[in-house]
Structures are given as C-alpha cells and as structure tokens.
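We treat protein structure as text, and this decision shapes the records that our systems exchange. Below, we set out a record of this kind in full and without editing:

***
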Amino acid sequence: MTTAQRLNSISARLVHRGLFVVSGVLWLGLAAVLFAWPGRFSLAAVAEACGVSAPDVAFAPGAAETTAFVEACGESGLVAYRDLQVVDLLYPAAGAVFLMVALAFLLQRIIPQAAWVAFVPVGAAMGDYLENAAAWVLISVGPLEAPWAASVLQVGSAVKVVLSWASWLLIVALLVALAVRAVRRRVDYATPPALRRL
C-alpha cells in the first residue's frame, strides 16, 4: 500500500458527523475568543497593550518588524501576548481537525482517490505551531537573546497562511463541484430519455 493509499484510508475514517460538530464548535469558540472577544486572551487585548497588532495576524512578518513589536510591548504587553499564545495552543489543532473532516467528507464524494489532500490543514497547523514556538521564545528571553526566533516566526507564519488559504479554497472548490454535480443530476433526471440522446 502506498503512502497516498494509506492517507486515503485514514481520510475515509475521518468522515464522522460527531467529530465535525465537536471540532467545529471548539474551533469557532476559540476563533471568537481570539478575533472577536475584546478582553484577555484576544488579539484586541494585545493590540491595546502593545499599541500595535500582534505579528500573528500578518503574513510572514519580517524579523525586524517582529523584533520591534516585542521591544515596544513592554512587560504588560508581553503578558497579554503570552495569554494569546495560551489560546493558540488549541486553536491550530481544532482548526486542522475541522478542516480535515470537512475536506475528507467532500473528497470522498467527489475525488475519493485524492482523499489524502484532506491532510493539507495539518501542514497549516504545523506552521502555526512553529510560529507559536518562536513567539514563546521571544516572550521568554527576548529578541536580543534569541535573534533567530523572529525569522522562525516568519517562516511559520508563511506556511500557516499559505496552507490555510489552500485548505479553504479547496473546500470552496469542492462545494462548487458538488453543487454543479447536483444540478446536472437534477437536469438529467428532469430531461426525457429521448432528449438525453440528442
């Protein structure tokens, strides 16, 4: 059995309504805390404490940009940034599971031989965790002690954003393909057999 076949087999087992609902609720809840909640653990709290948005919301922020953010934050700002990173321990995993289940469901119905594509969100989560690990280092020891961490954060951010966008675009494309297939079936069903041959 090839690696793709093994992944296809695992992908087929991911199609479970309960897993989809639980991961979706968890992911949406964590997203609400990060992006909509104005208090502790949120991006808004970091922006308020530091006077600038966290590098986590930028696409591959440069090392100099991240270093300037950490230095400008001060002690209270870094506490807010650390709180954000606590929530971000769960957010990537919840998002990856939710997207994997959604992709697995759609791929099994449209292109089952390519069901391994459902694992693209795992790469996005790995990029997010790399970004988070670099953020923890910057919070703990600062950019002067670990100048490499800002560059690692940049790489993790790029991987996270590119693969997250790829995952969501795949879902949209598969939903469109599923809708087109449904419309074609309905048209075929409504068309008299004699006209189908024309």
Remarks:
- The CA atoms of residues 2 and 72 lie 51 Å apart.
- The radius of gyration is 21 Å.
- Helices lie at 3-14, 17-36, 43-50, 63-87, 91-110, 120-141, 148-190, 193-196.
- Residues 3-196 form one domain.
